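Quick illustration, no need to memorize.
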Amino acid sequence: MSHDPTTATAYLRNLTALTDRLTARLEVETDAFATRRAADVAAGLAATQELANQYRRESAHLKANRAILLAAPASERMALVKATEAFEAVLAVHGRTVEAARTISEGLVRTIAQEVAAARAMGTGYGASGQANGGDSRAVTLNRTA
C-alpha cells in the first residue's frame, strides 16, 4: 500500500517530534540522577513511561508500514534518522546512569542490613551454664533481586 507524501511527511514529523521529546525527557532524568535529585525522576516517571510506550508503538507502526518512509521526502527521513541517533546516544548514557544509581542503592541497602545484623549479634553474652546466649532471632531480609 502506498502513502501520499503529505501524510507520510506529517507522520514522520510527528515521530521526529516524539523522539525529540523522549530524548529531552531522558536528558532531564540523567541530569537529575547526576545532581542527586532522584525524587525528580520518580515524580516524572509516569510521563516518561507514556512517552516511551508511545514511541515504541509508533516505531513499530513505521517498521510494519515501510511505505510511509518511502513516500516521505528524504529531508524528513534524515531528520528522523538524526533524532533517532541522538535518542540512542542519550538512551545509552541514561542506561548507564540508572544502572549506577541502582548499584549504589543496592550497596547502601546491603551495608545497612549488615550493620543491623552485626548490631543484633553483639553483646549476647554468656548464660549461667557458661554457654553463649542465643542472639536476636528476628530476621533481616535482603531481597537481592530488587
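The mean pLDDT is 86.
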